[in-house]
Amino acid sequence: MLDQLLNEHKDTLVNALTSKLGVNKDQAGGFLIKVLPMIEQLLGDGKLDMSALLKGDLGAIKNSLDLDMLGGLLGGGKERAEQGIDAIADPISNELDKLDDPIGMLGGLLGDDSGDLMSKAKKGLGGLLG
Q1: Which pairs with CB-CB distance under 8 Å and at least 24 residues apart come from 8-12?
Q2: What is this structure's pTM?
Q3: 40-76 confidence digits (pLDDT tens)
Q4: Residue among 101, 89, 10 at smallest CA distance from 52
Q5: pLDDT digits (tens, 9 = 90+) for 1-28
Q6: Above 50 in pLDDT, residue 105?
Q7: 121-125 contacts: CB < 8 A, separation 24 or more?
Q8: Neighbour tally for 114: CB within 10 Å
Q9: CA distance 118 to 103
């Protein structure tokens, strides 16, 4: 799903990074190509709390990724990677808000064992998004 988001909204995400961080388009694109599959993998492995993620809590993402490597793609270190994640969080959240069932879409990343986690995520969101 995040690959689809990257394909459909790459320009928006690149612009968010270039305008907020002052990086060039190549740096922004390189960061996106690395970070989105990493996030998707964390979701698929059940290592992220989807309800927290959909509420905008990026702590789990930041604590689970190689921020030094990602920051290097943006011309810095850990702090730069955190700024990059913050920069793309709003555009991604805005796109998820447009979906009829964003939790269900994210749940598709988890495979067949997602029912209990999806139930918890829906309860945590209080029906806000679905």
Answers
A1: 9/91, 9/95, 12/91
A2: 0.73
A3: 888 778 887 767 776 777 888 899 999 999 999 999 9
A4: 89
A5: 566 666 788 899 999 999 999 999 999 9
A6: yes
A7: 121/49, 121/50, 121/51, 121/54, 122/51, 123/51, 124/49, 124/51, 124/52, 124/55, 125/51, 125/54, 125/55
A8: 20
A9: 7
